[in-house]
Each structure stands twice: as structure tokens, then as C-alpha cells.
Amino acid sequence: MRQQIFLSASLAGALVLSACAEKADETVERAFQEVNVIDESNLNDVMLTVADPNEAVAHFQRTLKGSPDRIELQRGLAHSLIRAKRTTEGTAAWKKVVSMKGATSADHVQLAGAFVRSGEWDAAKAELDQVPPTHETYERYRLEAVVADAGKDWKRADSFYEIATGLTTKPAKVMNNWGYSKLTRGDFAGAERLFGEAIRQNHGLFTAKNNLVLARGAQRNYTLPVIPMDQTERALLLHTLALSAVKQGDVKVGENLLREAIDTHPQHFEEASRSLSALENG
Which stretch is the leader sequence (predicted)? Predict the structure, then answer.
């Protein structure tokens, strides 16, 4: 009898231990799943930022084979294709994103951006028109401004550029774009002001420096502005100013500026030398 009680107790204990072991296994498995999700999320973030864009494309394509309905993976693929400058594929990927359950206004903005990159202005405008006015983001208004620019709707472009600059802590690039828009319209003074503001926001933005010199040259102001520049940049800007002077018909001024550019450059300035030689030889 005592032996039977002992066996029953042992069996009950074994069942309890078995149940505990199963519960522990479930807990461990769940923990590993959570870790895997965290690790995958971190990996996806890395792929979207610091990874080589083509490696990122391959990563998201592989991951999507096992989870084709996960919209965040499709977004990752679309972002990576655009980063890799594979615009046609990127546009197709963003089209797929906006057709999926869970697509957002931000996704439509990204698709509009892809259309802009491929020069499909009407498609970009149509996509932006689907975005509700409550979606007020820098990227949305930056694209609205660019699309309005392409349609020569200057009033709308100026309005959208102004809104975009107020929605970012780094407005230098959009100010540069706005300035270039003014430059193409012939508003050289307005362009000069915006390029100057862009440079004040970002001293390293050479495109804005070059555009500023173009705006000054268009007004026949052939002196370099007082802005941060190293010796190589100074030479390049003098070259731009020289070509602007020649374009305005001030050939002698252009020749002198080219000589100064050649003397300023820390290395042999082949492009400026060729330009000067062409002018001197008539």
C-alpha cells in the first residue's frame, strides 16, 4: 500500500515537472521569438541607413520571400531601391506599397517622390493630390514645391517652399532648391538671398555656393561673396564666375578670372586652363 502511494506521488510529481518544463520551453521559445523580432528590426534599420543600398535591396528581397505580405519589408525594399538609384524598380515597389493593406499618406508621398526622380510630373502631382491636407510634413511640401516649379506655377511653388523650410531643422537644401527656382525665373536678387541663407545654414553646401556665384554673375557682379570656402572651392567658384562673365559678353573679365582660378587652385586646374586657352585663341 505504501509502495502504491509512493508510485502515485511520484507520477503526480513527474506530471507537474513535465508541465513546468513545457511551460518553461514555451517561455524560452517566446523569448527567442521576441529577440529575433528585435534583431530583425535592428537589422532592417541598419539596412535602411548605413548599409550599401544594393546590399539592402538583396536583404529585403530575401526577407520578403518568406513574408510577402509584410508592408514594412516592402517599404524597406522600395526605400533601398531608390537609395540605389534604381528608380524604375523603386517606383514599382512604392506602387506595390500603396496598394497594400496598411498603406499610409507617407507612402503616397514616397511614391510621388519616386515619380519626381523619373520626371513623371503629372503622375507625381496626381499622387500628391491624394494626400490629405492634414498630412503636413517637410517631404510632402518639398515635393509639392518641386512639382509646382516644374509646372511653372511660381506662386504655389513659393508658398510650398516657404512651408517646407518651416517644417525642418535643416532647411539648407530646400533653400538652395528655392533659390535655383528663382534663378531660372530671372529673379537673380531673390536667388542670391536664398543661396546666402542656405550657406549660412550649411557651410559645406558647395552647390549653394556655386549657385550664389551664378546669381551674382547674372547681375554682372564679378566679385566672390564673403562666405566660408577653402582654396580649391575658391578656384572652382572663380571658374564659375569667369564663365558667367563670358556668357554676359564680358570676355576680358572672364579671362582675368580664369587666370586667377588657375593661380588659386592648389593643383593643376585643367578645366580652367582649357577654357582660358580657348578664349585666348579666339
Answer: 1-24
**C-alpha torsion 60→94→103→63, nearest 10:** -10
Rounded CA separation 187/183 (Å): 6
The pLDDT, as a whole number, for residue 280 is 85
Q: What is the pLDDT of residue 42?
A: 66
Which triple of cell numbers denotes residue 236? 572652382
- Chunk the chain into consecutive blocks of 10 residues (it has 282) and report each block's average pLDDT, rounded to whole numbers: 47 46 48 44 66 87 90 94 96 96 96 96 96 96 96 96 96 96 96 97 96 96 95 96 94 95 94 91 78
Q: What is the pLDDT of residue 164?
A: 97
Domain count, the chain: 2
Predicted confidence at residue 24, as pLDDT, reads 47
Instruction: Tell me whether residue 50 is in a domain.
Output: yes
Q: Are residues 151 and 93 in the same domain?
A: no
Residue 76 resides in a domain = yes
| Same-domain pairing of 127 and 98 | no
Which residue range forms the structural domain that includes residue 54?
Answer: 30-103
pTM for this predicted structure: 0.78
- Structural contact between residues 124 and 110, judged by C-beta atoms closer than 8 angstroms: no
- 4 part of a folded domain: no
Show the 3-state SS of 216-271: HHHCCCCCCCCCCCCHHHHHHHHHHHHHHHHHCCCHHHHHHHHHHHHHHCCCCCHH
Q: Is 239 left (phi over 0), alpha (psi -120 to 50) or beta?
A: alpha
At 53 the pLDDT is 87
For the chain, the residue count is 282
Burial 170-191 (b: 16+ CB within 10 A, else e): ebbbbbbbbbbbbbeeebbebb
Among residues 56, 80, 103, which one ends one of the domains?
103
Flag whether 99 is in a domain.
yes
